[in-house]
Amino acid sequence: MKVVGFVGSPREGGNTEIMVEEILKGASMSGAETEIFNLNKLNIKPCQACMHCKSNEGECATDDDMQKIYKEIMESDAFILGSPIYMWQMSAQAKLFTDRLYAPMGFEEKFGKTSSALVFSQGNPDIDSFEEYINSTKEVFNLLGYTVKGVLISAGDQSPGDVKNKDDVLKKAREIGKDLAN
Ligand SMILES: Cc1cc2nc3c(=O)[nH]c(=O)nc-3n(C[C@H](O)[C@H](O)[C@H](O)COP(=O)(O)O)c2cc1C
User: Fold this and answer.
1) Does ligand 1 lie within 6 Å of residue 107's CB atom?
2) What CATH code would you report for 2-181?
3) Which of 32, 65, 138, 170 could bond to 181 as cystine, CB 3.0-4.6 Å?
């Protein structure tokens, strides 16, 4: 059992990273092997819409760090995508990752069944302010073939580490982690 986390915030030690780490902690407590990647440190190009993937069993023609990530996802049972809310949406780093998941879409037999969880940190203190966007993002990941088992949102985060004071959010994170590992 392996669970991997992808962090779409450029801030190391930021709220997104803390929540993804906490989910991984929950998964690890349930016996999963875990690994975390910061998307900001990886070279991930935008999808080129070349459609190479659709006639080559989900293989992406773009040779960058996403190749390593495809392999990680293939070898994992679940992954977490964490992102700060930037301009009402996920960060650019998280969006590049998401678009590139178009390649393996439809080739689940080859890539194996992988579930997922989504994590968002937002400055707005109203937790419902991006509900519609977050629900549609959840649908995107379900459609891509990665059944979303949990969504974690922390609202009212400004400085890196604000979420550390939120015991309810951290508790929910560990519960999602346990669920991903089972
Ligand atoms: C470029 C940029 C755009 C942002 N846009 C929004 C936004 O639209 N809505 C919001 O609630 N917070 C917004 N924020 C605040 C972040 O979502 C918030 O501070 C979050 O905790 C950052 O996560 P991190 O600590 O993991 O980097 C924005 C921050 C930045 C830097």
Assistant:
1) no
2) 3.40.50.360
3) 32
- The list of the chain residues with pLDDT below 50 reads none
CA of 114 to the centre of ligand 1 (A): 28
Ligand 1 atom closest to the Cα of residue 89 is: 8
Distance CA 176, CA 152 (A): 8
pLDDT at residue number 69: 98
Q: What is the pLDDT of residues 144-159, one digit of tens each?
A: 999 999 999 999 999 9
Atom of ligand 1 nearest to the CA of 7: 26
- Domains of the chain, residue spans: 2-181
Residue nearest to atom 15 of ligand 1 (CA): 123
* 83 Cα–ligand 1 center, Å: 9
